[in-house]
Amino acid sequence: EAKLEDLEVEDCIKTQAEFLNIVAENAKILPILINDFTYNDCIELADLLNSIDKQICVIASCDFVHYGSDYNFIPFVHSKKDNVNDLDMKLINHVLKMDSKEFYNMQEKIPICGTAPLIICIEFCRYFGIKKGILLRHYLSGDVNNDYDNCVGYASILFR
């Protein structure tokens, strides 16, 4: 059995696995990375996860708006913090309402990372009658490093 530290693993999976090791020691994980996808691909994968005959928990990793020249996304030059927050909240509100289709449509115009895992998570939760997400925390990288010229939005959202 391979140990996580022995594998070459994508950073977002390493982060989630380290967290799981703390809260659910000896949990078995199935890391899934998705790069090129359609909305229907996400729905199919959610269906597949739902068909697994085991108790499973889905954890998705997604960064929200990537603003600035580093990300080739500069739709505004003034009030950067407020505007990035507003864009993030539009995306997050679709997630909280579990409107994965509108979230998918918006991400086609705004650079974010991890759209597919979040859509899959939303659709998987639907199988259990979950109707909304709960925003636990939202912030921008600029809130930490005071650089809003190039910043990324982050949020913690719980579905239950």
Describe the model:
The protein is α+β, with helices and mostly antiparallel strands and 160 residues long. The protein is built from six helices and three strands; from the N terminus they run ααβαααβαβ. The chain has helices spanning 11-23, 39-50, 80-96, 100-107, 115-126, 141-145, and strands at residues 66-67, 133-140, 151-159. Helix 2 (39-50) packs across helix 5 and helix 3 (80-96) packs antiparallel against helix 4. It starts with 10 loop residues before the first helix and ends with a strand. The mean pLDDT is 89.
- Structure summary, number of beta strands: 3
- Determine the fraction of residues in helical runs and give it as a percent range: 40-55%
Shape assignment:
globular
Average pLDDT metric: 89
Number of helices: 6
Q: Please give the radius of gyration in angstroms.
A: 17 Å
Regions with little confidence, pLDDT below 50 for 5+ residues: none
Write the H/E string, N to C: HHEHHHEHE
What structural class is derived from the secondary structure elements?
alpha+beta
Largest sheet: 3 strands, antiparallel
Tell me briefly what this model is.
The chain is α+β, with helices and mostly antiparallel strands and 160 residues long.
Q: What are the salient characteristics of this protein?
A:
single chain; alpha+beta; globular
Task: Detail the topology: elements first, then pairings.
Elements: H1 11-23, H2 39-50, E1 66-67, H3 80-96, H4 100-107, H5 115-126, E2 133-140, H6 141-145, E3 151-159
Antiparallel strand pairs: 1-3, 2-3
Helix pairs in contact: 2-5, 3-4, 4-5
